[in-house]
Design a protein that fits this description.
The structure is a homodimer. By secondary structure, chain A is of the alpha/beta class. In chain A, about 55% of the residues lie in helices and about 10% in strands. Chain A has 15 helices and eight strands. Chain A has an eight-stranded mixed beta sheet with strand order 3-2-1-4-5-6-7-8, with helices on both faces. At the A-B interface, strand 7, strand 8, helix 9, helix 10 and helix 15 of A face helix 6, strand 7, strand 8, helix 9 and helix 10 of B.
């Protein structure tokens, strides 16, 4: 696989940041967005004020609202569509583009009801295209500013992972490769729920000790869930698990953490979401985690506390106290 | 083992916070400090302004500058002496106190030259007393304020770990138990070096992506070093490794992180240390890590970069760039 032309499906912050990465690595890049007016605005102003403020998009990066145009001639499609919209966009892509262009998926979620991972949704709708998953501690705002960042690209298709690694790596964007796309994808999805919990602790005025405990116990929780879903445990100890979990829990950029913080301060979920441009993935993912933890019979005390706080009106302070009161045990 | 009376050896921030924990859990507590004048000041003012500002020490907590007095009648000694002073204090304790009182060690370091862990130093000087190690993400400032905190107490002596867990746990201080004191102790020691690196990244103006990568790769580094020294790998995935690493790398309280930040901003080590009340453990520990990584032939790229920056005048920016430029590989 030789990657020279890249189509980015999705003009959110992370899609745009990865378009910049691909451009800086020497690729010809076209970004597809769902809303023609906003696509035209970005093409004209070279800005993405809604999702990646303060960054200039270089001229050679193309924009289109036509999926067929974004896919035509591309050696790689980077899928950067939020989970709730992924199935419909993938169906439109399948209709617009008959080819077998490899896909690099950035989506971090688990579809509600079906409980499928993003790459499984892509597989269902697009058939047997080669798929890789790119994930890790990588806030779009920092990647776009050239802050040193490391990610992992995981695929069962080793030549594809290799090609992506070598085509997109640069002096401030370091790509490791891995062979556990299931774990990579689940790490990225499940950590968003723990990040909401981290925000709740921030909103309650708790400190770094509490947050670190939450991260350590949260990692145990997502490792157990992930292993039950077919991931390798070791994957969660790396960039896709621990690394991404840490950045999402500590960062001021994190939207999942932000939702939790506002709720920890006393707001309700609808009140918080009213002020946001999009619903953070963790708010959806926690529903899937609830269903998965029941189906797989895996104890997920932190995620379940987040579910009760977000959707059943449970008290944040009482839920944290409940976690602290669990029977004293072995680590 | 029944723990009703506790002697705390060391009047630093962490020793004082653990004295408060033991007091709140219903123990009779005496704190020993090395400097009689400062001990008298603390006894009189019920404050420890040098090491734990803003906290009131309740009246029932006793103070002494006499090791024999602190140890007399105690069911448990909590050792909270920094590594460079531990051997001499332990020798004085051995001379002052002939008993076999169990010890709970809080010290986080590796002795320079001998490359011994704190519990090994205690064993060498005190003989066959029962020893446990207490560690985890637990900034003294937050523990003293009642912020929810979790730690692990690890010992080969299960009844001792059990007794400490049940004697000192409370609604905001949750103690897990473990059976790998070597790993618990090494996690606490080695993470301080990674925390200096995290501070260096902060000083250079890097972001959360960089720090999370450093934490994830740093955990790999300390797991490999720890395993080569006889620790269990799993221990580093818990509170004593990951949990403590995260809090030390993100916290504004962290002195190791602070040293790194000042150096990342362009100061030299002697300039930074001049402004501090004590030398943070990581500044010593990195020397031991250098010797250990050579002796055990374990690659420790982050710790070695910290060593070169602290002691050989290497450029922080060049060292980070060097870490980013290592050959692209598997995670």
């Amino acid at each position: 696989v030789k990657i020279a032309r890249v189509g980015v499906i999705g003009d959110g912050g992370w899609g745009t940041a990865m378009a910049l990465v691909a451009h800086q690595a020497g690729c010809r890049v076209t970004i597809w967005g769902a809303f023609p007016d906003y696509v035209a605005e970005q093409r004209r102003t070279r800005r993405n004020p809604r999702f990646l403020a303060g960054v200039t998009i270089p001229r050679p990066i193309g924009y289109t609202a036509d999926l067929a145009e974004a896919a035509a001639g591309a050696d790689l499609l980077i899928s950067a569509v939020p989970t709730p919209f992924l199935r419909s966009v993938a169906q439109r892509l399948a209709a617009a583009h008959a080819g077998r262009t490899p896909i690099c998926s950035l989506t971090k979620g688990i579809e509600n009801v079906t409980l499928l991972r993003p790459s499984q949704i892509l597989r269902q709708t697009l058939g047997r295209v080669p798929i890789a998953v790119l994930t890790g501690p990588s806030h779009a705002e920092e990647v776009a500013r050239g802050i040193p960042t490391t990610v992992v690209v995981a695929s069962r298709n080793r030549p594809l992972a290799d090609a992506i690694q070598h085509a997109l790596s640069g002096p401030t964007f370091r790509i490791y490769w891995g062979t556990d796309p299931v774990g990579a994808e689940l790490g990225g999805a499940l950590k968003n729920v723990i990040a909401v919990a981290a925000g709740i602790c921030d909103g309650l005025g708790y400190g770094d000790n509490t947050k670190s405990a939450l991260i350590a116990r949260g990692l145990v929780e997502l490792t157990m869930l992930g292993a039950a879903m077919g991931a390798r445990r070791a994957t969660f100890m790396g960039l896709a698990g621990l690394g991404d979990l840490v950045t999402t829990c500590i960062s001021r950029h994190g939207r999942n953490r932000f939702v939790g913080e506002a709720i920890g301060r006393g707001k309700t979920l609808p009140q918080v979401l009213k002020s946001m441009k999009m619903v953070p993935e963790g708010v959806h993912t926690v529903k899937s985690v609830r269903d998965l933890s029941r189906r797989l019979k895996i104890d997920a005390p932190i995620s379940m506390a987040v579910y009760r706080i977000l959707y059943e009106g449970a008290s944040p302070r009482a839920e944290v106290a409940g976690l602290m009161r669990r029977p004293l045990g072995r680590e």
